[in-house]
Amino acid sequence: MGNLQGMSGTIIYFGLFIAILYFVMIRPQQKQQKKRQQMLDSLSVNDKVVTVGGIHGKLIKMDDDVITLQVADKVELKFDKKSVAYVIDK
What we know:
Layout: H1 2-41, E1 48-51, E2 56-62, E3 66-72, E4 75-80, E5 84-88
Antiparallel strand pairs: 1-2, 1-5, 2-3, 3-4
């Protein structure tokens, strides 16, 4: 009987550990991914953005997964849509 009680205690602690792990790591990461996806879905032409590489530019053209940024006069660069880190002054 003593072994059975020790095993059930271990299972309870393991379940508690999984619950803490979920609320501390997994859930916040899912929220952050959802917020980022909403930001990417709301991009529109003329938005000023910063890429994950730190390049600032004005969004001048959008396709499904590719955006074109104007970074200077007559200088346009193409990026994957996922490379946008954040929008400035939306």
